[in-house]
Amino acid sequence: MSTEDPRFAGVARLYGIEGLERLKAAHVAIVGVGGVGSWAAEAIARCGVGEISLFDLDDVCVSNSNRQLHALSSTIGLDKVEVMAERLRQINPDCTVHAVADFVTRETMAEYITPDMDCVIDCIDSVNAKAALIAWCKRRKIQIITTGGAGGQIDPTLIQVCDLNRTFNDPLASKVRSTLRRDYGFSRTVTRHYSVPCVFSTEQLRYPKPDGSICLQKSFVGDGVKLDCAGGFGAVMMVTATFGMVAATKAVDKIVAGVRRPSEKVKAKQDPHPSPLPEGEGTKS
Questions:
Q1: How far from chain centre, in Å, is Cα 216?
Q2: DSSP labels for 35-52?
Q3: What is the Cα–Cα distance from 171 to 255, expressed in whole angstroms?
Q4: How far apart are the C-alpha atoms of 281 and 139, rounded to whole Å?
Q5: Across the beta sheet with 51-55, what order do the strands follow?
Q6: Residue spans with biased composition (Basic and acidic residues) (predicted)?
Q7: DSSP element (H, E) containing 178
Q8: Contact 43, 249 (CB under 8 A)
Q9: What is the Cα–Cα distance from 68 to 37, expressed in whole angstroms?
């Protein structure tokens, strides 16, 4: 086997020359460039993907240092997407990188998430925005990989992937499911597949107590505990990075397998107002 691109020759020796060419022709969006998304973006770039769109409105802050790839002393206060975009361009100068310093919400979805995208990696930690993104992609037949909660965990070996409707022990994924069912007509039947791969962990969450110790019971904290810069769940790179790497793996697998072929992308561009979800693709039974 030979390839004219020494930068990604190792990728070609794993996925084949045709697989690498599909990756070079692909457009992947990473929504949320934090503890999970920054690592997913790095992996996608190092697999030779030709076009990457990064979405996040946050700046790099010092408290990101425990889990986010772009958090360095020299980058504190800078836009996450700009820092990450420059890094990806250094990895692959031939990659077209779009750095969008904004959040993807129901109001901005039509502008940012477009049918030419081969895959979207959802690394958002907001339930409503996450559900809106999943529903948007499903209705437009855009491949999406979603991620559950990565905070409050220390064991990356417990991370796995299954259909979003089959996850367990993941509060974030559970809330997203409830929102999809309530607001977007997704099926309440537990045996129905949403055809949305979800990266999640089966690990029991570790809750911080006011005295600085850790417990495995939620009763010590309020209902609003989450992964953020001010407090809430703790997080370590070993877990958040693994979430991102697994999500990137699923995206690469779909692209190499040709899940969305060029003819399908052209059709999607010509149909900006697709019909509602068909039976069996997340609709109510």
A1: 27
A2: TTHHHHHHHHHHTT-SEE
A3: 29
A4: 9
A5: 96-100, 51-55, 27-31, 119-122, 144-147, 197-201, 159-163
A6: 261-272
A7: helix 171-184
A8: yes
A9: 8
CB crowding 221-242: b at 16 or more within 10 Å, else e: beeebbbeeeebbbbbbebbbb
DSSP secondary-structure letter at 140? T
Task: Tell if the pTM clears 0.85, that is, is over it.
Answer: yes
- Nearest-angstrom CA–CA distance, 66 and 34: 11
Q: Give the separation between CA 216 and CA 9, rounded to whole angstroms.
A: 46
Residue found under tokens 């004219």: 4
pLDDT, tens only, 111-127: 999 999 999 999 999 99
* Six-digit token string for 17: 């020359």
| Sign of the CA dihedral with 107 first, then 179, 28, and 76 last | positive
Euclidean distance between CA atoms 96 and 150, whole angstroms: 29
Please write the tens of the pLDDT for every residue from 56-111. 999 999 999 999 999 999 999 999 999 999 999 999 999 999 999 999 999 999 99
Tell me the pLDDT band of 192, cut-offs 50, 70 and 90: very high
CB 37 within 8 A of CB 246: no
Domains in the chain, start-ordered, CATH in brackets? 6-204+234-270 (3.40.50.720)
Q: What is the pLDDT of residues 3-46, one digit of tens each?
A: 578 999 999 999 999 999 999 999 999 999 999 999 999 999 99
What is the rounded CA–CA span in Å between residue 63 and residue 70?
A: 12
